TrEMBL record:
Coiled coil: none annotated. GO terms for molecular function: nucleic acid binding. This is Integrase catalytic domain-containing protein.
Length: 122
């Protein structure tokens, strides 16, 4: 939680001009945080929760291939695609879990290497 708050604070600091307007930028900072890929999982928090990548506002204004493809689908075909995506959600979450465990192992090895040889930490 502390790391999340630190990252959101860092995003807000880059977006605000004065400290008084931080509350106006909070929704945009949260959107940026939720739609950016985390190194530890290899996926965005949004995609892990909803099993679909978020449609960014710019994709609505300037349609991306994904938005164009989905807008031309009939309702039945869209429902079938969505059902197929939901069936794959467990697989995506397991992949993210595996990626997170590998990331933790890499971090533990790096920490242990620094602990064994303190001169290298500088």
């Amino acid at each position: 939680m502390e790391a999340t708050n630190k990252n959101i604070k860092r995003i807000i600091e880059k977006m605000t001009v004065t400290y008084k307007d931080w509350h106006e930028m909070l929704p945009f900072a949260l959107l940026a945080y939720r739609t950016s890929i985390r190194t530890s999982t290899g996926a965005t928090p949004y995609s892990l929760v909803y099993d679909i990548e978020a449609v960014l506002p710019i994709e609505v204004e300037i349609p991306s291939m994904r938005v164009l493809a989905e807008s031309k689908l009939e309702e039945v075909e869209w429902a079938k695609q969505r059902y197929d995506q939901l069936n794959l959600i467990d697989e995506r979450r397991l992949t993210a879990l595996c990626h997170g465990q590998c990331y933790q192992q890499r971090m533990a090895r790096a920490f242990n290497a620094r602990a064994e040889n303190p001169q290298r930490a500088v």
